[in-house]
Amino acid sequence: MGKDELHEVSVAPIPPPLLPMEKHFSTADDTSACHLFTSAVFSLIKLTITVVLLLLIVITVLFFAFHPKELQAYVEDAALSQFDLDGNLLRYNLTLAIAVRNPNNKLGVYYDSVEARALYDGSRFGFAVLPIFFQEEESTAIIKPDFNGFGSLTGDAVAATYESEKERGFYTIEVVFHARIRVKAGALKMRVKKQVDCRVKLPVAAGGGESPAAAVAPVFLQRTECDVSYTWFLF
Fold it and tell me: Fewer beta carbons within 10 Å, N or C terminal of the chain?
């Protein structure tokens, strides 16, 4: 065989690449998963509605069983021995006696926290934290917030209101109480947020209110009823 002799070479064809097998999900599996999800959602909705209805039933039963009456509050006494505004700086000395009446004969009231804020023309000038206490059935409790010190008033019209009321001989002061209380009715406990809003008109102290030592605190003559509002909770 000569060295220029040609040899025929056969090439085998290359097979095509293997494609990944497609996964087929049955329609039955999809339907089952959707059914389980829908059932869970409806079960949760029914449970929520059941709990709400039970709470409403319990509240209704307790209302007719105990027939709770609203607590009442009155300003029994107040003294303003100093109320002197210099620019925006107010020097004050205010004491009050607030009577809180529990008219219920089956419900006692636990006062877990009581705070008092004193405001003039919408601007807060005093703050006091009062002792916690328990109020028995059909009883009256006297709380005595004491506001004494100095602070800045905000608002453009405060000075004008002060001068106008000073000429008239009285100041209109608002005292707001915020209390967290508990009421127990049988095995159920109820938490209540209570707000008491008292507005009083106090005469200008003798001596102009410029010096607490020289001023004579005016006598508070008129018993004033306060507004009481509630927000109820269950736990």
Answer: N
